[in-house]
Design goal:
single chain, about 270 residues, 2 domains, 4-stranded antiparallel sheet, 11 helices, 10 strands, globular
Length: about 270
């Protein structure tokens, strides 16, 4: 784990983000920043509003109020394809692969936002289109290998192991050429070996690819081992923020996870 950049260069700034669903406040005026080149974790109990917050950052939901700036550009309320094209990639809490497509085909879908060929060129199968498609396939195979998925190019994704399906989701997200990668509970359902390997892989993404990473994660070992900073949500509000060690000692965080009575009983 390397130090958070100290030059004040934040790749993402969310200010006073609020999301209401009818009378329910899912995100209550949250301020949140992600330093460029860092690994930041967003944690909290079930129902804390973490995925809702992710969905606002990626354009799935439009904030009721507030402003989101990514890499200097206001992306508040912009549609998902716009935000993907600007450089935010993501995976999902529930795996959303194209189950009947091969691993390589899933990655190629992720490249769609970066391909230059238009509809006419694709229909006419011009030489430029053929070259671009072949280059995409080469890059797709490279991404599969990079994510630890060797000899899976032609494997139908539903036949892959759970851990490999998680890795395939990351490969597809990387195919969009993100600057910021959002991972929604990436180690959910993984065994301890897979979890350890994935934690090392997150650091590899940062150190070798120069990516900034935002995690939603329940496994505190993952959070402690790979995060530069941790932000804690509870009932849609930010209740704590700091280094993993600082957050781990925060009384409000302990209460949110264990309950006030458990905290008092331990004192």
């Amino acid at each position: 784990m390397s130090d958070v950049p100290k030059n004040g260069d934040d790749i993402l700034v969310a200010e006073n983000i609020r999301k209401e669903f009818g009378g329910l406040v899912a995100s209550n005026d949250v301020d949140f920043t992600i330093p460029r080149g860092s690994v930041v974790s967003l944690i909290g109990p079930n129902g804390a509003g973490k995925t809702t917050f992710f969905n606002m950052l990626t354009g799935v939901y439009k904030p009721t109020a507030g402003r989101i700036t990514f890499d200097g550009l206001d992306v508040t309320g912009k549609p998902p394809h716009f935000i993907t094209e600007r450089g935010i990639g993501r995976t999902f809490q529930n795996i959303r692969l194209f189950q009947n497509m091969t691993a390589l085909e899933n990655v190629l879908v992720g490249m769609h936002a970066r391909l230059r060929g238009g509809i006419i060129g694709s229909i006419l199968r011009t030489p430029r289109i053929k070259t671009e498609e072949e280059e995409a396939r080469v890059r797709g195979r490279e991404l599969l290998r990079y994510c630890g998925l060797r000899n899976t190019d032609d494997e139908v994704s539903r036949n892959l192991s759970y851990g490999d399906q998680r890795r395939l989701e990351v490969a597809r997200a990387l195919a969009t050429k993100p600057k910021l990668l959002l991972l929604d509970e990436p180690t959910a359902g993984m065994n301890p070996q897979e979890t350890g390997d994935f934690t090392a892989f997150v650091e590899k993404l940062r150190s070798e690819e120069g990516l900034t990473v935002l995690l939603i994660e329940h496994d505190m070992r993952v959070v402690m081992n790979c995060s530069d900073r941790v932000t804690v949500l509870d009932y849609g509000e930010k209740i704590a923020e700091g280094t993993p060690q600082e957050v781990q000692r925060d009384t409000r965080v302990i209460e949110a996870y264990l309950g006030k009575q458990a905290v008092e009983a331990s004192q």
